[in-house]
Amino acid sequence: MVFEKGLRGIPLSVELWLHYINFFITEFSSDNNSKDRIKKLYERALSAAGLEFRSDKLWDSYIAWENMNGNLKAVTGIYERLIRTPTQLYSHHWDNYKRHINSHHPKEILDIDTFLKLRSEILNKSSNYHIDDEDEVGLDEALQVGDSMELDAPPGMLATMGDEKEVKKVRVKYIESRETIFKQNEAEVSKRWTFEENIRRPYFHVKPLERGQLKNWREYLDEEISQGNHTRIVILFERCMIACALYEDFWMKYAKYLEQHSLDGVRSVYQRACDIHLPKKPYIHLAWAAFEERQDNYPLARKILMNIENNVPGLAMVCMRRISLERRSKNHEAAEDLFQSYLEKAVSNKTKTFFSIKYARYLQKVIGDTERARKVLNDALQMDNANEKVFLQLLDVEYQSQPIVEDRVMETFSRLLKSDVSLDFKVKVSQRRMEFLEDFGTCIQKISEAYDEHQKLVKEANAKKKRPDKEIIVEEPPDKKVKIDVCGPVSIPPAPVDHNMPPLPPVGPPPPDPHYGYAPWPSAAYGAPMQPNAYPGYPYPAYPSGYNYYGY
């Protein structure tokens, strides 16, 4: 039971499979059907870990056990699978396979159909194999392991098992037919050899992996995926997940690949990652929740998001994903409950501002309740009267109202300009107020008053920029000071005059316009000359720089 539990957790562990098999042989070899049970166990091991690049010990153990039982045809079958499997000791296995072929009569190691087919080809094409030209067909190269068993066979056996020359020809023919398979497998090994050599830590450890190791795993996975062998790709991913178990991008790459093949496999990968290895990593949880939502499994998606929120509280992305999940599932009551809950639990004004803005947008854009959206933002301003983002969102709410109410918008502008926000921000908002009045205003007097107030703000801002916050006095060194003669008059040289300095522009407001009673709005900057008959432009953006459409 312990072995089975361990192998369910680590199915790629060749050492654990070998320990289990040796334990099974020791304890149950005396049972009646022990051989069948042991064979099934070996097949399970090969199915789980046989494609591992370093699984050579497992293959050798299986071959040795079949040889011990005298099942030569089964040994041949194992070698047939092994020479098609890229492993670290592929050349060693090929040599052992040729030794196995040359050490036994073809009838003992091949099934009857294969043996008769090879013998028939040799008899029909005897011109390719003459008795006197064994060197030309490469017989010595094929028989690399010395003399075969027929040379030492008891008298009379050669007659019963066929002519020795014919047996050698069958062996050569069979080895030549497998040489092509070996070359193909060798090419597959060469594709993976560099990646395998660069794997320095194939086991799990809590210490971070080097960047080179992570890069090697990524490139190895991409190469294996490009080959298109699904079984080998899964095996390599499982190997990678042992060494890279603490890196969520590898788990997400694995899950994304499996989405094309098995949804249950995807769910298993996410479950192992989130429940065992990465319980506090948010992105893998969000990816799992999104996967379950795509499968319309809303209860499980809610549970996943709740788990990561409990493990790592205070993550805004998780909170908003929970709210968005309820909104997409048309559960608006639950979404509003979550908004209110997060507002109540907010521990800072910044957090409260964030959720207030999101909640106001939700109420206006999704629910269609502008009055409640306005109330949420006003409540936030009572807590923080200098929050520029909330003011901008409140302006956006009024702008988006249908129909637009001028008095409400102007009231919001006035409230903002009287608040504790920065002077530069007030200048930008004042510019936006003039734009609003020009587009939607119904009274020219309000436009004039807004312009006058804007001019005052601009002058105040310019004066603040010119006036340093604190006058800095630089103490001259003693040798630079002017020496004063107490007995005579002091001679101070006049300051040098820079004749290349351009004349200063005139100071003062522009001349009044007889048509409107106030100066026109300049096209580039206040105080710049206007072109004749030009429509007064605005030197300000639609929204203050540094903020997006929604105010942050």
What percentage of residues falls in helices of 4 or more residues? Answer: 55-70%
Mean pLDDT: 80
**What general form does the structure show?**
elongated
Order of helices and strands: HHHHHHHHHHHHHHHHHHHHHHHHH
Keywords: mRNA processing, mRNA splicing, Nucleus, Repeat
GO molecular function: pre-mRNA 5'-splice site binding
Subcellular location: Nucleus
Protein name: Pre-mRNA-processing factor 39-like isoform X3
Task: Give a written overview of the molecule.
With 552 residues, the chain is mainly α. It has a domain at 1-126 and 163-196: Alpha Horseshoe (Serine Threonine Protein Phosphatase 5, Tetratricopeptide repeat), CATH 1.25.40. The chain has helices at residues 2-9, 14-28, 34-49, 56-68, 72-82, 90-103, 106-109, 112-124, 139-142, 157-161, 164-197, 211-227, 230-243, 248-258, 263-277, 282-294, 298-311, 316-328, 332-345, 349-367, 370-383, 388-399, 406-417, 423-440, 444-466. Helix 12 packs antiparallel against helix 13 (230-243), helix 21 (370-383) packs antiparallel against helix 22 (388-399) and helix 23 runs antiparallel to helix 24. It is elongated, with a radius of gyration of 43 Å. The model is unreliable at 127-162 and 482-552 (pLDDT under 50).
Task: List strands and helices in order, with pairings.
Layout: H1 2-9, H2 14-28, H3 34-49, H4 56-68, H5 72-82, H6 90-103, H7 106-109, H8 112-124, H9 139-142, H10 157-161, H11 164-197, H12 211-227, H13 230-243, H14 248-258, H15 263-277, H16 282-294, H17 298-311, H18 316-328, H19 332-345, H20 349-367, H21 370-383, H22 388-399, H23 406-417, H24 423-440, H25 444-466
Helix pairs in contact: 2-3, 4-5, 6-11, 8-11, 12-13, 14-15, 15-16, 16-17, 17-18, 18-19, 19-20, 20-21, 20-22, 21-22, 22-23, 23-24, 24-25
